[in-house]
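Consortium newsletter contribution from the modelling node. Members have asked for a concrete example of what our holo predictions look like. Here is one, prepared for the NAP complex that several groups have been discussing at recent meetings.
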Amino acid sequence: MSQQKALLLEKAKGSFVVSDVPILKPGPGQLSIKIIASALNPVDWKIQAWDFFIQKYPAILGTDIAGDVEEVGEGVEGFSKGDKVFAQGFFVNEMGGFQQYTLIPAEIVGKIPPNIDYAQAATIPLGFNTAAIGLLHAQPEGAGLNPTFDLSVGYVGQPALVVGGSTSVGQYVIQLFKLLGFSTIIAYASAHHTEYLKSLGATHVIDRGEVPIEKVPEVVKKIADVPIKIAFNAVGDNDSRAACIAAIAEGGQVVDVNPEVEAKDPGNGKRVILVFGTSHHPPHREFGKILWKTLPKLVQDGAIVPNRVEKLPNGLAGIDEGLQKMKANKVSGVKLVAFPQETS
Ligand SMILES: NC(=O)c1ccc[n+]([C@@H]2O[C@H](COP(=O)([O-])OP(=O)(O)OC[C@H]3O[C@@H](n4cnc5c(N)ncnc54)[C@H](OP(=O)(O)O)[C@@H]3O)[C@@H](O)[C@H]2O)c1
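And here is the predicted structure:
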């Protein structure tokens, strides 16, 4: 069997179509992964709508992968055919997630712990990388809270804010704040997510249906009894960024998921970090290697729980509809997951 099914974005701003493409052999240091579950992300519909990141069309998108090791490349140690693994895809066809087989460097692949299934595992890579690189990685790529991922270094007694607490990224930010020992974790999200976000570690949820974004700094300052030094904008729009900047104290940092904005110096020694949440990116690679060694144990111990899953029907063909739903803001607090092997 040398052919597989892939979901191709035919051309810039074009349509998605399921097609046959070759299955590639892993190069040195790579794993070939048979993809069982592939999660959808806003970046996938944004690439289709706006055309960025992609150098060559037709393009295979998809950055959240879970499956089985199919073949082990030369020089790879610690993985065997059949291992259950999860990994982050990248914006080149050989590493895309919207296909049945992909190639990923083994040093940034993790083994799926037995307490979660493929679909749950697929919800983790991009969201967790974005949260972890943004918060922990050394400056300027991250806020530098814990560049060695040494979780014995803590922030007990300190407050933190995440705007967009119910986003996939926001859910991992809350869990990382908890792991880092922050005592007050304030999330801005819809009220119906309150109990769930508290189960992840939020101590306070500000209802975005009740409190307009411009009032958030005022409410946050009433909740936190010491100045806030770190905020995470998991929504990425200008109003959310402005609220985060206003909420933090002099010398504080805002991590922002929108890498496209101009990073203006907000003054007062405050800093805005524009995160690019991928272990594939060369400046993040060393951190990514540590992350992928650490993450499976955190998941196994229940310290990091996956996002809740909504399963999509029709294999790769079902992805397009899922992306349109996401684009229409109709996905709330869950991750959409497709199953490439179910493609007819
Ligand atoms: N820089 C990077 O490397 C990177 C990586 C990953 C993601 N991102 C970006 O980060 C953003 C979040 O991605 P994601 O996958 O985590 O999103 P997601 O899970 O698809 O986001 C959906 C959630 O966003 C919430 N939301 C929408 N507008 C909001 C607002 N104004 N205030 C608070 N919550 C709001 C919705 O809440 P309700 O339930 O209340 O409707 C919904 O639960 C996207 O813009 C994405 O493109 C960037």
